[in-house]
Amino acid sequence: MSGADDWFPVRVAAKVRDGQDVFLFDLADPAGAPLPTFPPGAHIDVAVGELTRQYSLYSAPAQGTCYSIAVQREAEGRGGSRALCDGVVVGDTLRIRRPRALFALADDATSHVMIAGGIGITPLLSMASHLAGNVSVTLHYLVRRRERAALLDAAAQAVGQGNLHLHVTAETGRPDLASLIGPPAPGRHLYLCGPAALLDAATATAEGLGWPANHIHLERFAAEPVANAGANRPFLLRLRSTGAVIPVMADQTAAEALAAAKVELPISCAEGVCGACITGVLDGTPDHRDCVLTDAEHAGNRLFTPCCSRAHSEMLVLDL
Ligand code: FES
Fold first, then answer.
1. What's the DSSP call for residue 176?
2. Could you tell me the fold of the domain covering 229-318?
3. For residue range 196-242, what is the model confidence (pLDDT) as tens digits?
4. Which atom of ligand 1 is nearest to the CA of 269?
């Protein structure tokens, strides 16, 4: 869980175009001070006007003076990437939130298989740079067209040219995922980042090959569709601090109901992906609709994402 104190300003120290429609930004402390450290695979929130967007850090964690992010300009997106790519220049100040890690390397892994789809290369590049050749890493990088492959040289440097496999799907079709993933083995872990369709297919393939679930790690760009969406019913929230009871209507989210009651929460993705809004639950049973909490956390029912999740019980008592 995080709060307003996690936000701080950074200066855009560099901005370059790399690959079609991808811009690389280096962000530094305005006074040149070191930035907070981060683990491989971490991401930051970036405030873009009224919007907040998440970007994985692709720089190596040991690199402490700047954060590097890659932004793919989405012409049809909600505007955050266009504002950054078109409107932000070197020397501008941005507000970002302290890095958070929801996509982590397995400590006990001795061999890593990584599959990136498009701009999903970024957290995997940070992980690969951190490992720096100390253990076996194979990185498969899938792009539709060759000109869309950003950060290719950095990826080759991180894993070694022989361990980087570029798959240009417009030229060769999507590769056989089973042969990329291979059989499970002790100490072997699989990391996936990219569009949902690729992640779903790769996860299903790995499970079909017998990979244990705790050896498959993934980061999604957007929330999965919710099976029971449309079946919303109202419920109540009670706040631990004041005892106030806040109704959540069928057509609003818990976060919206809390905001209407002047209860501030850090909302970022608003779709259960980023973890910014995670809130403690003291009583009641959430109807979890996020893809950021783990299966164990869902089963424990002590955490809740108000931006998208609802309640099975009539009331949830929140640690707010
Ligand atoms: S705001 Fe991102 S998970 Fe709720």
1. -
2. Ubiquitin-like (UB roll) (3.10.20)
3. 888 889 999 999 999 999 999 998 765 544 544 456 889 999 999 99
4. 2
